[in-house]
Amino acid sequence: MNLADAKIAQLLIPISDFDAGVAFYRDTLGIPFLFAAPPQMAFFNCGEVRLLVGVMPPGQEAQRGSAIYFQIQDIHSVFSSLKQAGVSFKSEPHMVNRTPRSELWLAEFTDPDGNQLALMSEVVQSGA
C-alpha cells in the first residue's frame, strides 16, 4: 500500500497574524472562506484542496518552503485585479514554457508573511 491513489486534501499556510492572514486570503485573493477556529486556524476552499491558514502554536516555528500555484484561466485579468487589490508581484505574467499545443504562464507573489505563491495559466494555442 502506498500513496499512488492519494490526492492532496489540505495544505497548511503558516501566518503570523490571524486577522491579517484571513483578510489576505479571503478579501484580497478572494478564495472562498469555509470557517474559522480562532485564534489559530481558518479554512478556505480552493478547488478540491482545502487551505488551512494558521498561526503556529507558541514555540513552534513556521516552516516555509513549498510554493503554492493557483491555476487560473486568464492570468492577465487575475493579475490586474490582484495588483489593484494591493498584491505585490515579483514580476508581470510571463511565459515559462511553450509547446506546440500550449504556453505556460506564471506570475509569482508572496503573502504578507512571505509565503511563496503564484498564478499559473496554461494557454492553448489556436489551432492546437
UniProtKB/TrEMBL annotation:
InterPro entries: Glyas_Bleomycin-R_OHBP_Dase (IPR029068), Glyas_Fos-R_dOase_dom (IPR004360), VOC_core (IPR037523). This is Enzyme related to lactoylglutathione lyase. The keyword Ligase does not apply. It comes from Agrilutibacter niabensis. Keywords: Lyase. GO terms for molecular function: lyase activity. Residues 7-122 form the VOC domain.
